[in-house]
Amino acid sequence: MTTTTDSSFLAGDSERTLAIIKPEAYEDAEAIENTLKKNAFTILAKRTVKLTPEHAADFYSCHYGKQHFPHLVAHMSSGPIVALVLAAPDGVERLKELMGPAR
């Protein structure tokens, strides 16, 4: 598990949001982080972790009872993830635009 933070950043009018690099994209995490930085996001904190099924179920509990819940839990606990706390002006909407449509 790795944790880094950038406490020198003053958020000001920036929004903070959470981005999770999923297990299938873990190998591309550095390129993803570089893309975020090139798009004026500041990475305030970064943590690499391997979720247990219990932790994944807890995190995604709002999906409990839905058909995709078991697959979601299995998928998110199948390998390491990278959790990023990001900041940027209008950061939530800009991250959605950068990521593209949800599947």
UniProtKB/TrEMBL annotation:
Domain of life: Eukaryota
Transmembrane segments annotated in the record for this chain: none
Classification via PROSITE patterns: NDPK_LIKE
All copies of domain Nucleoside diphosphate kinase-like, residue ranges: 14-103
Family: Belongs to the NDK family.
Name this protein carries in UniProt: Nucleoside diphosphate kinase-like domain-containing protein
Organism for this UniProt entry: Plutella xylostella
Phylogenetic placement of the source organism: Eukaryota, Metazoa, Ecdysozoa, Arthropoda, Hexapoda
